[in-house]
């Protein structure tokens, strides 16, 4: 199997072997669990892991947007993360929100950030060490070098993709894609209209992972996207409902396959499905 384009995944074994570094006050290594429901983190997490709530810690609380640069710097510095830290992120749902946070780290220019392959479920279900002890690291200064707009899509980028017939990857369920439902069962509906962006292919976020939540091999990922004529030769836009599931696809395309001209539309269907006059398609 071909190696991934970038060395951005670490195994549970690797994290287990470096727990002493993650527990240390030295900011050289930091481990971060990112979820929306942080009750599970409070009950059990990897030793030394900082807990971030994606909704309250990593989102601007007055605008539907990621943190500002200064707020991002304040958050990381307050938890003992420096711009030189090797940061390993993991979370539930096969790293939905951890992948989003990875993308946000890259957006603000943090070079050495990785994902724990398989996420929280893999760590817990395979019997790796857990604790309910909350780490308390000394605060440090953090200075972001971003933003790096080359990995982020905005409304005008989506409009350009439609006009130029560039690849659009809708990673939601077939029912969301068709317009039958507006959100996964049990989650809040966030759009006025259902359907998908014209020309988008429905390639589920789950198609890039194995049953245990780990990512598929380079060759498997390449073959998956090649079936839809996505080979990295043109700009590819990934989207979902709020930008977290599409971050998993962005990670697979941009980081693992090395398709550098892949961008994540974090506005996703919550923005597009509420826009006046924006074109949509329904059905499969």
Helix/strand layout:
Blueprint: E1 9-10, H1 12-17, H2 19-23, E2 29-35, H3 39-43, E3 49-53, H4 54-57, H5 69-78, E4 86-91, H6 92-107, E5 113-116, H7 119-125, H8 155-164, E6 168-170, H9 174-178, E7 201-202, H10 218-226, E8 236-239, H11 245-256, E9 262-264, H12 268-272
Parallel strand pairs: 1-5, 2-3, 2-4, 4-5, 6-7, 6-8, 8-9
Helix pairs in contact: 6-7, 6-11
Total beta-strand segments: 9
Known CATH architecture of the largest domain: 3-Layer(aba) Sandwich
Poorly predicted runs are none
Helix and strand content put the structural class at alpha/beta
Q: What's the domain count?
A: 2
Q: What is the general shape?
A: globular
What are the secondary-structure elements, in order, as H or E? Answer: EHHEHEHHEHEHHEHEHEHEH
Average pLDDT confidence is 96
Query: What is the CATH topology descriptor of the largest domain?
Result: Oxidized Rhodanese, domain 1
Strand order of the largest sheet: 1-5-4-2-3
Helix content: 25-40%
Strand fraction: 5-15%
**Name given to the CATH homologous superfamily of the largest domain:** Rhodanese-like domain
Q: How many helical elements?
A: 12
Characterize the biggest β-sheet: 5 strands, parallel
What Rg, in angstroms, do the CA atoms define? 18 Å
N-C termini distance: 33 Å
User: Which class of the largest domain in CATH terms?
Assistant: Alpha Beta
């Amino acid at each position: 199997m071909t190696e991934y384009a970038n060395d951005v995944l670490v195994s549970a074994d690797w994290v287990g072997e470096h727990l002493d570094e993650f527990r240390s006050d030295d900011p050289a290594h930091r481990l971060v669990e990112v979820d929306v429901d942080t009750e599970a983190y409070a009950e059990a997490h990897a030793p030394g892991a900082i807990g971030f709530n994606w909704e309250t810690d990593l989102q601007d609380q007055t605008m539907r947007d990621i943190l500002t640069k200064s707020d991002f710097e304040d958050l990381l510095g307050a938890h003992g993360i420096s711009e030189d830290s090797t940061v390993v992120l993991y979370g539930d749902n096969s790293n939905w929100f951890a992948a989003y946070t990875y993308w946000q780290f890259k957006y603000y220019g943090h070079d050495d950030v990785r994902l724990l392959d398989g996420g929280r479920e893999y760590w817990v279900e395979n019997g790796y060490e857990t604790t309910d002890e909350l780490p308390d690291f000394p605060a440090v200064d953090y200075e972001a070098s971003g933003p790096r707009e080359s990995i982020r899509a905005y409304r005008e980028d989506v409009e350009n993709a439609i006009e130029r017939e560039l690849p659009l990857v809708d990673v939601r369920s077939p029912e969301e894609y068709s317009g039958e439902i507006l959100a996964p069962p049990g989650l809040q509906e966030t759009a006025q209209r259902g359907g998908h962006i014209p020309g988008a292919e429905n390639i589920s976020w789950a198609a890039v992972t194995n049953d245990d939540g780990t990512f598929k091999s380079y060759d498997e990922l390449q073959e998956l996207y090649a079936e839809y004529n996505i080979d990295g030769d043109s700009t590819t836009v990934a989207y979902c409902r709020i930008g977290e599931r599409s971050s998993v696809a962005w990670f697979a395309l941009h980081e693992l396959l090395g398709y550098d001209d892949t961008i994540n539309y974090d506005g996703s269907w919550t923005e597009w499905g509420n826009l006046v006059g924006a074109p949509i398609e329904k059905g499969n």
